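Try this one yourself first.
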């Protein structure tokens, strides 16, 4: 019995000093997905307005966007993982279609995460948009337009193609995907984006 206990203790000690293998901080996407629909290197953030991590990541990715290389194109795409997420995705695309995304995007985040608004219905979103000095009725109408329906389907297709399962997730050139859970923190996430952009540039040269 004593030898058995000693053997167990020895095994635990070996485990304690065994090197820790870090988790992958990005994943290679199936090459059949292609590099996206852009001639340049495209970086795509999948997000949800109700996600607290996306809210905290928003200023970081905005700062990165300001200093990104010229050949890199950046875009936001709302993730659609539930009906509520779909509602908020329609709001994003409506703002985009009406060319009021700058007035809507960060205020929507702040309304949910600082003011406690839930944004669970078109009516609530319309009232919020009106409070921004915009046309709430026009906005809700745009949320249900054919153009927004088309953009929503495209978002769902890309989400499935890239294997997006959580937010924030960032796809680089249609080849790589990273996320908060993969990278571990936002600093590393930004580093991974830069590294994969460089890799994509090298693959195209």
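Now uncover the answer:
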């Amino acid at each position: 019995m004593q030898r058995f206990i000693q053997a167990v203790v020895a095994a635990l000690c070996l485990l304690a000093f065994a090197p820790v293998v870090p988790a992958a901080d990005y994943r290679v996407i199936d090459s059949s997905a292609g590099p996206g629909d852009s001639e340049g290197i495209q970086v795509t953030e999948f997000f949800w307005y109700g996600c607290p991590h996306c809210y905290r990541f928003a200023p970081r990715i905005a700062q990165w966007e300001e200093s990104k290389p010229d050949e890199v194109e950046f875009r936001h795409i709302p993730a659609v993982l539930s009906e509520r997420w779909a509602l908020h995705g329609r709001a994003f695309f409506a703002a985009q279609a009406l060319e009021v995304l700058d007035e809507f995007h960060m205020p929507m985040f702040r309304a949910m995460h600082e003011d406690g608004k839930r944004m669970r219905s078109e009516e609530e979103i319309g009232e919020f948009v009106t409070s921004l000095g915009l046309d709430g009725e026009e906005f809700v109408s745009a949320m249900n337009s054919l153009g927004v329906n088309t953009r929503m389907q495209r978002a769902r297709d890309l989400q499935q193609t890239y294997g997006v399962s959580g937010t924030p997730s960032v796809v680089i050139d249609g080849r790589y995907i990273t996320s908060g859970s993969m990278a571990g923190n936002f600093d590393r996430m930004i580093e991974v984006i830069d590294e994969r952009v460089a890799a994509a540039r090298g693959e195209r040269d």
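Discussion: Residues 23-204 form a domain with the Glutaredoxin fold (CATH 3.40.30.10). Residues 94 and 105 are 11 Å apart (CA to CA).
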